[in-house]
Amino acid sequence: MSETFEPVIIGFTCNWCSYRAADLAGTARMKYAPNVRLIRLMCSGRLDPTFVMKALASGADGVLITGCHPGECHYIEQNYKALRRYLLLRRVLKGMGIEPERVKLVWASAAEGMKLAQEINTFVEEIRALGPLGWNRKLAGNGHKVEEPALEVAA
Amino acid sequence: MSAESKSSKPKVGVYICHCGTNISHTVDVEQVREWAEKTLGAEGVVIARDYKFMCSSLGQELIEKDIKELGLERVVVAACSPHLHEMTFRGASKRSGLNPYLTELASIREQVSWVHTDKAVATEKAKAVVAGAVRRVIQNEPLEEIRVPIHPDTLVVGGGIAGIQAALEIANAGFKVYLVEREPSIGGHMAQFDKTFPTLDCAACILTPRMFEAGNHPNIELLTWSEVTHVAGYVGNFTVTIKKKPRYVNTDLCTGCGICVEKCPKKVVDDVYEAGLGYRKVVYTPFAQAVPKYPVIDAPNCTYFQKGTCKACEKFCPTNAIDFTQKEEYVTIQVGNIILATGYDLFDARRVSNYGYGRLANVFTSIEFERMSNAAGPTGGNIVLRDGKTQPKTVGIIHCVGSRDKNYNNYCSSICCMQSLKFAHLVRERTGATVYEFYIDMRTPMKAYDEFYQRVLEEGTLFVRGKVAQVTNAARNEREEGKLIIQVEDTLAGKQRRIPVDMVILSIGMEPRHDAKETSHLFGVGCSSDGWFIEKHPKLDPVSTMTEGVMIAGCATGPKDIPASVAQGAAAAARVLNKIMQKEVVLEPIKASINEAQCSGCRICNGLCPFNAILFHEDRMVSEINPALCQGCGTCVAACPAGAISGTGFSNEQILAQIDGLLMDVNLAV
Amino acid sequence: MSEKPKFAMYWSGSCGGCEIAVLNIGEKILEVDARFEVAFWPVAVDAKVKDVEALPDGDILLTLWNGSIRNEENEHMAHLLRRKSKLLVAFGSCATEGCIPGLANLAPLGEIFETVYHTISTDNPQGIHPQPVTQVPEGEITIPALKDRVYTLSQVVDVDYYMPGCPPESHQIAAVLDLVFQVLEGKAQLPPKGSVIGAGGSTVCDECPRARNVKTIKAFRRIQEVAPADPALCLLEQGIPCNGPATRSGCDARCPRAGAQCIGCYGPAEGVIDYGARLMTAFASVIDATEPEEIERILDGIPDPAGQFYRFNLADSLFKAGAPAFKHNGH
Matching CATH topology for B152-238+328-343+513-587 and B348-509? Predict the structure, then answer.
């Protein structure tokens, strides 16, 4: 390839911890990879697997889910629900032949701007290594007839 | 399926801020503006502007003018974090007659211009962020703020100096306070101290007048020997259940004469107030100036409760105030606000086995030393070794025990340097002993602190910079026989030293209360992994929490000295008074609701709400959300398998649209 | 005109169960025959495709299409019947969401051919493999080529109404037919285009008689591991993964009433864009564990999550297929 593959990643943050960590990274001018586009939710517990699947099916190469550390959720314990959904979602992705590593859950408190920036950088490289998912291209490039799989016909 | 139930797309205005050059130095704002107008025109964008400072009055006027003249129905401001200016721009919309919740902020500063370096890439990302915001805002629904009344009573949990301060401030303003304290008396840790730095005020002398004032204030109801067991409700309207543990003393009859204590035949080690250095009776008041003055009976150690005999206290009580049949009692109160001032616990020095606490007799903790040096303490204020009579000739004070240490607690406990200096001063003053202080850094930042340090220096205390490796009684030579030897690397002298002393004092660090996590869950506040309560903003909002109506003050939020605790107690009280004076509080209208027709009554949502906002109606076999209790986390919205729960402010339509917008460039390429 | 309105029913990638469900309306089928002229219904009458082609566009009032779009012929017929029909109803799970045939979307086409024609249990001694074009002495025979993956009806043509179910319950079919008869008599209005008909507005739990409580799942088990299951208590609460909570109502919860877990044949509830995601989130949310190891252990009780959550709905889900289905496209 003449060009390096630049992943496009959708990141979900929670209003109280990880979004503030992202803000903190910004205020401290920490530099990190530009491949993640963030969405703010009130809580990681709002994370519906539909969102993750929508993002991946619409062309994202990976999804990063972030929230407060277990025990520190602003809404007490909702991040545990996010954790359970995430673990099940990964299994479903695997069953669909999609690398479960394309979705990652990271905990970051409001003070951990540096950590979030590092996790973003790490995840971008992990997705880069996996290559593009390009699901939207897969879906759009269809409808054409497919050659029958060539198989030897015994005489 | 398209969520556009409107026949035409709402008119959207997009405003790109330069933020001086904070955004424009990395993001080509003009390019984004032009792109928004042209490419997003198909989405409904009718005007796109860029301006140096959107948050300025001129910037806001641009928006207001466009809303009025162009009939804008949605506004997107691409600028800084919504945490800074969401209110500002919502206000601009509101002033122009547009529902404030039809305004969205797209962060292209903290999340783009400040964190990326490649201008072309940053500009493309900014476009994606704007596209996401535009598609999202089209799905926004107008929402109305929710106003709830504030109950004027307040609950203060914790009767230490911070809690007492907070209670007095509110009570003096004319409002009722419930002050709940789990020990038999208010006063907290400060009541255990001897002198306080840097003034060397006697702790009891400055504390007890406050305690007395709180105990006698007409607006303060003291609930000592009590604990909160349940909290329900929301800001302005909390219902709190308090368990009053049985004192076995009828407080209506007790005069506090103390005869019961005198006559009680059984002593136990007092490991709370006396830090294990002294004894107390089984029926006791923790200290002489206790408020309230009523004693309690320590049932697990009481001869009557254990064996059915004795009852000396009952026999001698002149007013028949002893009541062995007393049971725990639960009371329920209504309050509008809660202040948590639950204080701290101390680091367990036994964990640092190389310092020998608990094994070597003459190693003391700081709190033990406070009790020792206190004139009303178990040694009558005499500085003596464990044998109770020998004065030490040399004393070593070790800083940072269990603090600033990755093996135990990583943080600095803030007060130990000053406390250690105070000890050095007291030891020298009372015994003339040689005092060594073993420190890593000297932290004496506040008013008159450094001057105190200089005074102690001049008084002749010896300072060794180095983290003590061990305290041992294994003597290597005659000089060390019978002594405790402090082994330390003196980093300034550049060599190892073995310093024999008679007594070692360990300045142990502060820790969160051992049940801080449970407390934080009970009140619905955040608690860091260390265990300190989390403030809303570490710099600008140190006494609020993310939970409206619950404040925090004092050492419960982190180690601090008495002036800071007092200031926070007063600050939390000011916040509470602020709310009470406003008579009502405005809540964000981010709430979930259940479409009853679509709800199947599967009850999957029922167990998901930590705020108990979801009810199940057995008669109709459907669930329902109480909007007053709903905190808007959206967990139930995400969980409902029937799609029957929707959430305002962060609806499925809004988020899915935002995802579409963020990936617009990826899909244009297909 | 005294001419009766025309009715058609066509099957594509399907099993024939929908046809049987229609016939299972009993004597009401005579009313269908009385009210409609059956223009095209391969299982029941001998009309030919060219008869349909000869009709004016929009001439068939009501076409019930069951079956997924698996091959070129299916797609061709879908376009044809769309043109010739006033109302085209995607009838049954295959047409509305792909149903079981949709699970082919988890494998590459080559693998499907291999499994069907060349595995050990296939009696194909000559290793014959169907070709789209074959020369025979009489000339050239063509058979429809497979499309690259299974599609739902609405993914290839515009659909007026959706009737979910595998098959749609006969009482629901009867109810829809009654509605159509009422509309024909001018006594009722058709629902808005795009509506789901012959189904309820909630999910299976709404019709299920079992008792339900606040859910805390500590394990997922196969029904035979739990047997005898408590007949009066929610199956999910007994650890049996019942898809009822996410599955549209309308079937009267037949399977839970009979002691079996719902497998989800009525598809998603109103407004849901991905059926499997709703099940995933619901199951995961009520698992009673907070440590990842414990959660994983409990999730091991669902050994085939893609199958559990997308058994009927894969072709209509957000992903529409598994990654292997796209292998031959060069992607």
Answer: yes
